[in-house]
Design brief:
Helix content: 10-25%
Largest sheet: 8 strands, parallel, barrel
Strand content: 15-25%
Structural class: alpha/beta
Number of strands: 21
Shape: globular
Bound molecules: beta-D-glucopyranose
Number of helices: 15
């Protein structure tokens, strides 16, 4: 059963599920809700606390479900509303939570509102979307899907006007200046919350409103609306969360938490959580160059957030590795380092999975996860990354990182008894015959067991969820070192991001006389004097507990 802790998300382990690729229960080659329900025990075993489900609503799937045609139902491929209720009940029975995706910014062009809206200029639904007789409005707004969309406006022949869309042309933006739209989206939120879910990951939130002369992102009107959404949750569904997806710089993200910047004890009143986008590409850059400078820099420039809020940190998700929050120079460098082939690039990012990005080098995968599970924030694991799944850059759009989960070595990978909706990974390195859950569960040395151990160890040390974080300035740029602390204790994380052994000297006068114990291995190290010198092998990492004196 669920424990009644309203701040549960502060130290939760999140897991992102792409329903279509997770588990097919009815033999149609597409994953579904009953399939996911049969895998809850697996997620429980891994140590997952909260599942984030990608959009599961009826949709033409031009953007894999982020183009919603009907907010009140489940896509027939995935099952029924009853199946969804069963999933929620079964997850709760195991002490796990479920957050769904809430796509506020846009609908599919197949949604009944848009079908009406485009019929005529005086249709009652016309004003549900953003129409204009010119495509020269809001010209300061950037285009997000740069590979496919020449403009944020598309001409609709029927009425000779343009409609506004921040993503694909088949995803018209809703008009939040229309109070009816603003109200209807709250009704939709309540409809799903009433089924007992634990909150929402709110998609693409910076773009809800448009104003001339701005870049149409992070506008005050957007924040006001999101605060209204939050009030509904607080009043009617206490203990549930809003996790915001705003791919922005940390200082532009800060307002999404709300509260009072001068007083962190004042509760945040907008999002409970927000993804920390910019730190992610910097982890990859640091690992390639053996230089932690950019991680330290972005964490330095990350503002403090209210005590009742939390970052959500991730290494990969269902999208490309986004390079929007890096400089142009770094984007070129990252493409050169991580996307040598054209097909690996997509929009302003890289469509590859974690293991291939890290050369399938177990040491690199482990150290990246050692950082993920100890940075400030709640970590999220993308399905399949716990076993080191590969990708297929030849598939359409981002499907190459959304291939069927590899459960077993059998044909169909234990995912489906039918031909899967997308080809399973079948190469020598990452093929399901070699990389699959069953094999890794049986092998105590597998990545799966290491991930399980990271998660269990993190949970045994709540400092990693709750503690403040102080990065240590060390001379050796290859080594990342930080202290996590609460009133209850302190931990020291030390990671070597280079492929060479490194020595590092840390200044730790306040811990003189302490015997650091690596909580991941149980091994005790030398007593700390004012300075502490450590030798680390290539990509070696430590999570030291500093509470022990001997
Ligand atoms: C989602 C993407 C989606 C876009 C438009 C995002 O940020 O993560 O997968 O294409 O929103 O809805």
């Amino acid at each position: 059963m669920l424990k009644n802790n309203p701040l549960w998300y502060k130290n939760a382990i999140f897991y992102e599920v792409h329903l279509r690729s997770f588990c097919d229960s009815n033999g149609d080659g597409k994953g579904d809700l009953p399939g996911l329900t049969t895998k809850l025990d697996y997620l429980k075993e891994l140590g997952v606390d909260c599942i984030w489900l990608l959009p599961m609503f009826p949709s033409p799937l031009n953007d894999d479900g982020y183009d919603i045609a009907d907010y009140d139902n489940i896509h027939p491929d995935y099952g029924t509303v009853e199946d969804f209720k069963t999933l929620v009940a079964e997850a709760h029975a195991r002490g796990m939570r479920i957050v769904a995706d809430l796509v506020l910014n846009h609908t599919s062009d197949q949604h009944a509102w848009f079908v009406e809206s485009r019929k005529s200029k005086d249709n009652p639904y016309r004003d549900y979307y953003v129409w204009s007789d010119t495509d020269q409005k809001y010209t300061d707004a950037r285009i997000i899907f740069v590979d496919t969309e020449p403009s944020n406006w598309t001409l609709d022949e029927a009425t000779g006007e343009y409609y506004w869309h921040r993503f694909y042309a088949s995803q018209p933006d809703l008009n939040y200046d229309n109070p009816e739209v603003a109200d209807k989206m709250i009704d939709i939120l309540k409809y799903w919350m009433d089924m007992g879910i634990d909150g929402f990951r709110a998609d693409a939130v910076p773009y809800l409103f448009e104003r001339e002369g701005t870049n149409c992102e992070n506008l005050p009107e957007t924040h006001a609306y999101l605060k209204r959404v939050r009030r509904v949750l607080d009043q009617d569904y206490p203990g549930t969360i809003l996790l915001g997806e705003a791919n922005q710089w940390p200082w532009d993200l800060r307002p999404y938490f709300g509260g009072d910047e001068a007083d962190l004890t004042a509760p945040g009143d907008e999002f409970h959580m927000a993804f920390h986008f910019p730190v992610m590409p910097r982890i990859y850059k640091a690992l390639k160059l053996g230089d932690t400078t950019d991680i330290l820099d972005i964490m330095d420039r990350t503002p403090s957030i209210p005590d009742n809020c939390q970052w959500c940190v991730f290494l990969r998700n269902h999208d490309e590795v986004t390079l929007e929050m890096v400089t142009e120079e770094d984007r070129q460098l990252m493409w050169k380092l991580y996307a040598p082939e054209d097909r690996m690039r997509l929009n302003l990012g890289i469509r590859r999975r974690l293991a291939p990005l890290l050369d399938n080098d177990r040491r690199k995968i482990e150290v990246a996860n050692a950082i993920l599970f100890s940075l400030p924030g709640a970590p999220i694991v993308y399905y399949g990354d716990e076993i080191g799944m590969g990708d297929n850059i030849w598939l359409f759009d981002r499907n190459g990182v959304r291939t069927p989960m590899q459960w077993t070595a059998e044909p169909g990978t234990g995912f489906s008894s039918a031909e899967p909706w997308a080809p399973v990974i079948d190469d020598d390195t990452y093929g399901y015959q070699k990389i699959n859950v069953a094999a890794q569960q049986a092998d105590p040395e597998s990545l799966f067991h290491t991930m399980k151990h990271f998660i269990a160890t993190r949970k045994a040390h709540p400092i990693l969820g709750w503690g403040r974080c102080d990065f240590l300035r060390v001379e050796n740029k290859a080594v990342l070192a930080y202290l996590r602390r609460t009133g209850e204790g302190q931990m020291l994380i030390v990671c070597n991001l280079s492929d060479q052994p490194q020595e590092v000297t840390l200044s730790l006068p306040e811990f003189r006389g302490v015997t650091p114990q690596d909580v991941l291995t149980g091994q005790a190290h030398n007593i700390i004097s004012d300075e502490y010198t450590l030798s680390l092998g290539a990509y070696q990492y430590y999570w030291f507990d500093l509470s022990g004196t001997t």
